[in-house]
Amino acid sequence: MPDTQKPPGSPPTVSVDAGSYRVVRPESANDVIDLLRKHSIQIVDLKFTDLPGLWQHFSITLPEVHEGLFEAGIGFDGSSIRGFQEIHESDMLLRPDPTTAFVDPVLSTPTLSLICDVVDPVLQQPYSRDPRYVAKKAELYLKQTGIATTCYFGPELEFFIFDSIRFGQDQHSGYYYVESAEGDWNTGRDEGAYGGGNLGYKARYKEGYFPVPPQDTLQEIRSEIALTLQQAGVQIEVHHHEVATAGQNEIDMRFATLTRMADNVMIYKYICKNVARRHGKVATFMPKPLFADNASGMHCHQSLWDEERNLFYDASGWALTSDLCRWYIGGLLQHAPALMAFCAPTTNSYKRLVPGYEAPVNLAMSQRNRSAAARIPMYSDSPNARRVEFRCPDPSANAYLAFAAMLMAGLDGIENKIDPGAPLDRNIYDLPPEEAAKVRKVPGSLEAALQALEADNAFLRKGGVFSEDLIQTWIDYKRTREVDAIRLRPHPWEFYLYFDI
């Protein structure tokens, strides 16, 4: 995430041609209704997030949009949503948040999108398993502690854009097949459809960082994604090709408050996928879709503020950080095994978090050093720029739950003054074996992370931010639908290793 000198309280600015304008977000139902008229909207789309972290939606026509919609909500079947209700308690409500309204830039029909909160109609209260509600509770708990008024998050989501993807598994077969014109494996492909011969310029494995076109074939698509995101009110700072071959990318958003940034992550994924599809390609946030090359992470920059003062800055502290910042890091590192259940929440995540490679598996803090789990970026000595970058999460995470969990771990570190240990300002990958053995590591599997969450979740339940029901539902869902489902199926490589045994 690039450094910035702009005060964090300033509203986002979107560049348009030679000028700029401020994104004016609606504040009330009446503001939303004015937007409908101003943009000649024909459809209103109501979006919300299921427990694993995928957007769901349905659309309504204009006669259904009135002030009462924002107060009473609109019904839907919660039993059909992953991680939500059973069939005998399926009636649920969506209550649109007027401050999230944006004109949907990927649809040809004039459509206004609204992000919604989920409500239990019987209790007339926010639904405890609604991920967005958890994020909002975390921000409220932060204020109640008196430690800070605001938490800012700036995630760096990496993702791949492929030309095509095929996969399948049944009782007697299983495969996946990724195709990309940028893939290093295609140096010998006949590309006659493009005018004869092979166009070359394939990014070599682990050499995809920052090449210019024609090697970077996705420059125009990333620019289109960035500008489309800005149309939706998400400010973009930078975009570039990432390290891996076959079309790995990164587009960085300007930091925002916790729930707002989680909203922006959902918009980001939605627009990346739809713009890629517009070009006949497919975007994926799966952490490790390719063997033998870099995976996709979601490094999360975070800081605590008291109004306009960055509480992580201390001119006389190590790496210009305050005691409060280092205790926050101590909480992240102490609770990292449990955090991974939300921050790296797929079995595929642990194909990325493997010791001995470039993944941030070492639970240590450092300045500048990307081999540590918690890093202090040192691009600038500005007080506004002081933050911690937690590098373990990946983009398969449900951003609402992951951001809330990281904040709760950091606050627990501050409340208990947890010592993060001495800084490791060396390449941890090159430590002698006896020293490396002393550095704690993240869990090696999703099952291990879920076990850690079972054993260590009291910090999440403070202030009722994460309910016991949500934590147990998450663990049960992940075990039955993902861990066990993967464990039961033969892997193609097992045939190579064992068929002749």
UniProtKB/TrEMBL annotation:
Q: So where does Mg(2+) get bound? A: 156, 158, 242, 250, 299, 389
Q: InterPro entries of this UniProt entry?
A: Gln_synt_N, Gln_synt_N_sf, Gln_synth/guanido_kin_cat_dom, Gln_synth_cat_dom, Gln_synth_gly_rich_site, Gln_synth_I, Gln_synth_I_adenylation_site, Gln_synth_N_conserv_site
Stated EC number for the protein is: 6.3.1.2
What GO terms fall under cellular component here? cytoplasm; membrane
Modified positions (O-AMP-tyrosine) are 429
Q: Which residues form the GS catalytic domain?
A: 131-501
Q: Which positions does UniProt annotate for ATP binding?
A: 237, 301-303, 370
- GO molecular function, one example? glutamine synthetase activity
Chain positions recorded as L-glutamate binding sites:
294-295, 352, 358, 370, 391
* Bound cofactor: record note: Binds 2 Mg(2+) ions per subunit.
The name of this protein is Glutamine synthetase
User: What organism is listed for this UniProt entry?
Assistant: Trinickia fusca
